[in-house]
Specification:
Length: 631
Amino acid sequence: MSTVYILMGVAGVGKTTLGKMLAKELSLSFYDADDFHSQLNKNKMKAGTPLDDNDRESWLNSLSIAIKKWGDSNGAVLACSALKEKYRKILSRNDAVKIEWIYLYEDYETIAKRIQQRKLHFFDPLLLKSQFEILEPPTYGITVKVEANPEKSLKEILEKIKRPEIGLIGLGVMGQSLALNIAGKGYPVSVYNRQAGEKEKNIAQLFAKSHAHRFQIPAYDDLKKFILGLETPRNILMMVKAGFAVDAVIEDVLAFLEPGDLIMDGGNSHFKDTERRAEALKSKGIKYLGVGISGGEEGALNGPSIMPGGVESAYNRVKPVLEAISARDKHGEPCCAYIGSGTSGHYVKMVHNGIEYGEMQLIAEFYYFMRFFQQRSPEDISEIFSEWNDSERSYLLGITYHILKKKEANEPIIDKILDVAGQKGTGGWTTSSALELGVSLDTITASVMARNISGLKAQKEKAKDLYKGLNSNSVDISLKNLFAAYKAASIINHSIGFELLRIASKEYKWNLNLSEIARLWTNGCIIRSSFMEELVEIFGSENEDHLLLHPRVIDHLNMRKLQFINTVAEIQKAGCPMQVSSAALNYFLNFIRGNTSANIIQAQRDYFGAHTYERTDKPRRNFFHTNWNIK
Ligand code: 6PG
């Protein structure tokens, strides 16, 4: 199937001149739609009578038949006014034809002058006004303001008719921001959004229209046209809600894809879903990448952190564009790099979110303590977080500083926000994966549970009057100690997240580079921080053991361990919940004790179920059973 290029716009704008030049450049035949008018229409125009829609219908019909014929052979260049959308619909009604719309425009005065200078043309310059009146500029295709110098306009057309290298499906906030980011970096991108009732009506067209002053982004609500309009082999980035919607989109696009095409899932899909999808598509010759993207709306627009996983050759195809749109680390390198095979990209993004859950809850806990057990105002706490952020930069601390400062009708908005946390699943999935791998994920799991317990709002309201006598109104703990405890808990939360990655990498044979993952997380993503910068170096020193055994981490925690233990204990003594901080503390205390209480567990298991146990006075992997009957 070949492309038919249609240069459209009002009479006199330069369709014929530029059309002929373009046809020559592309070695295609040129056609002028005027030649397809009936004699009756030509006479009417000559007499200065504007054509009505009936006059145009037979003309457009014969043109659409010709377009189909050209599309089935070598393609062509056609100059045709095609002023209204309904005319263009007739011209493009044959789905199997690839049409590239080239909308030429110029202001009324310039064109009127040009037409008046024309000789021997049957078009009456007075008709120009009516053409401007009915003109409906397209929101798709490419737009070119015609220059006095046609060579210049031709050059612009040739640059713009490069077909989109990447097609983006799903124009939610992340999809829109990424599309603008891609276009802004000079990569041709087209977008598709389904039509779904009033809620999702003309999303793609409206999006392209509202950014038309900056970018030419072909926008579609017809999936087939969107896919056929892409450069082959095709690269498609899905930005749709994780879960069923991803499967539905894959099923729909598959109808039009060819072997060698690539689908990328940029959402927070469960890594096991990504594995299943990649396997199913492999048998059809379609490549699949699970691409973790972090940074929210702002990151997606200005540079997110990108974690692509899957077949490396598929990644290499889209590497230039993904790197171009990503954030930069402190050395100016892209915060985007191939993570590993299989579903590692989505797995790493999931653990990112797990650490994110832990960090968010930690900040929330310290806020809660200072707000309700030290009676500080949101504004005061905001200033405290700002100071913490000055000495230990963290994106999440920074945004919380802003949140606490924000007022509505002169009142802190935070006081009006209902204390019930939402979640979309990634935190809980991290816990499930850790359970499968036998990894202890204390802080991340505690942060998920803290969100869950916040949902028991009604019961909590009742319970507050049933268990009295615990609340202490002003607990005297210094800011220095609070900060030390926060920092220690945060280090442990990171250690726990990275430990899961280390074990998963071994289990799934991904060969993850933890230093590189930390580097990807130094900018663009939600958990970027100065500690993350430090982790790049810590992992870079080939310490492939638990992070809590690294000399720099040991120094950090040794320096703060007493403040950490005492502060969490004091806070809990006052009756203030500290789910993640105490989980971090318990993890730490368990980790540094050398021995644990697990000998009792083993003995109990052996007592009631003859599950056997290993002995301290015998080599490992030897199992013993005792007859516990004490008579
Ligand atoms: C990011 C965020 C992003 C999203 C979370 C929120 O890295 O940009 O993590 O992916 O905000 O999925 O998840 P919850 O709704 O579960 O808090």
